[in-house]
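>> received
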Amino acid sequence: SDFLDVYTGLALMNFNGPKDGMIDGDKTLGMRTVFHSGANLVLNEKWILQPALILQAQQNVGEMIIGGAFGRDLEPTNEEVTRIAYAGIWYRNKDAIVPYAGVEIESWKLGISYDINMSDLNLASQSKGGFELSLKWEIPRPSLRMYRAVPCPRF
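>> returned
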């Protein structure tokens, strides 16, 4: 749809039970499972909502991250370019709140976030969080114009 784009994924890591040579050569790493899902919801010509969820588990440890971001199209009248500014917040179960800001330019997305620790680990971190930078490149989708085009042979 032009207004809703839903995605979901599943990853299985350490599927073959590799040995952990760093600690004990006979110990194997447990399988890690990651499920993620989210959506891009176009609210109007300027605003986008991006809710998302990540669930991770490895052996007896699990983690849930839930949150999202609002995006504002900086050039809503020009469909040929992508320029979107984002701001959002994430919650990592019983551990941290993570504010986020970013910008999307064409297929590139650059973001910055800061982990605000809320768990007992704030004693060890002296209530200091941590900055994270992210850089993402997505393979561009063909435009709608490409889907509607009728291929014609050229001579």
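>> The mean pLDDT is 84.
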